[in-house]
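2024-03-11 09:14:02 INFO queue: dequeued item ABC transporter ATP-binding protein, len=498
2024-03-11 09:14:02 INFO validating residues
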Amino acid sequence: MKLELRGITKRFGSLTANDGIDLVVEPGEIHALLGENGAGKSTLMNVLFGLYQPDEGEILLDDVPVHFKGPGDAMAAGIGMVHQHFMLIPVFTVAENVMLGHEPTKGGVLDLATARRRVREISAQFGFDIDPDAVVGDLPVGVQQRVEIVKALSRDARVLILDEPTAVLTPQETDELMVTMRQLAEAGTSIVFITHKLREVKAVADKITVIRLGRVVGDADPAASSQELASLMVGREVELTVQKAPAKAGDDALVVEDLTLFAANGARLLDDVSFTIRAGEVLCIAGVQGNGQTELAEAIIGLHKHVKGSVRLRGEELLGRTVRGVLEEGVGFVPEDRKVEGLVSEFSVAENLMLDRSFHGPFVTRGSIDFGYRDTFARDAIAEFDIRTQGPDTAVGKLSGGNQQKVVIAREMARDLKLFIASQPTRGVDVGSIEFIHERIIAVRDSGVPVLIISTELDEVAALADRIAVMYQGSIIGIVPGNTPREQLGQLMAGVAA
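2024-03-11 09:14:37 INFO prediction written
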């Protein structure tokens, strides 16, 4: 199916999110929509999917103008969308999720057998290996994304929108998705691939359209260099490598010894994890998602009870303290899921910037919030961290993912830091914001603070790390220098000890 957008404009009050956008996607084409966070990519796709009504412009399918009053109309016309944040019900099975919204019936009763058969047919076609009766909440993130794709294809989608599809995937899951995308395109499905990851665009896209500040600023060939694409996205030269001097590491600042974490059923989630981070050093934890990295960060910050071992920060034991107690010891913590653990979407930017700090000064005076100080602090943070927002009073849930991440990082870096922990610090963040966040992390390191980074992005690990600890099945399988080749890291991540 050929898709064409002509002059699409979408406004939200005084903000023009899409400004006269033209886009053509040919049948069987993977068309990448590239741009910074907040450039208007997702808004444009929400218009296409019927979630928003355009203020100007029109949508054509096979040269015929169409008008969608809602997602149901878009799906009926053959358009499917896999959202960045999955639209699945965790307690339902795969088949139950796939049938939602167009439930087949037989004799007035839900026909779950037909849904199961459809899941098996599509899974077999693309090699997904999905159990129709599996509970979605028990599935890995990469498999959940496949469920979303199956759900779209079960409704005969001929145009598939993938909105930041790799934001929560491991490198291995990303590679598998690229294979699936190519299979879909070869089968005739048109794909709109929304992303900001240059490596992925160059690997899979047939054509690239770049959007900046709500406007199309150009088309590019996948053969273009990463530097050219980044400059087109951001409107300036972007440094794709982290500029940093060798670490001037001091004494051991964070000492983790024999850290063991037990699940409720007694299983070991962390198994005698030990490492040190010196003052002014970045230690990156690498590994395939699900090997204990998340639990490690949460155990250090005080989110788990069934923990043994020791975590000492400049001689002070952190284990046994509340999360608030750990934070007030000078620990900045950026969680891996900003929406669930880092922010309150309904709260304003200013309110989110003072989360965890409303117990005492300077945000509180004589038992009451000092709104003047709070708002001044927020305006300064917005300027310093280049948070794209209409103002401190804007609900943080209305910001793009990258700007939400900047709010979290601004808040945590504003502490009187003795330790900085960031889990997936640039997940879902565009190339310009990645450059900025990496610079700030190195600045924290250079101020003499120990830094613990947990990332599944090997490029990020290589860019930031002074040393790398690789986790496998809840243990650290090896600690290597920051300049260790990717191939060696890959072997460690697969469980092959050095």
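2024-03-11 09:14:37 INFO annotate: Residues 245 and 446 are 9 Å apart (CA to CA).
2024-03-11 09:14:38 INFO item closed
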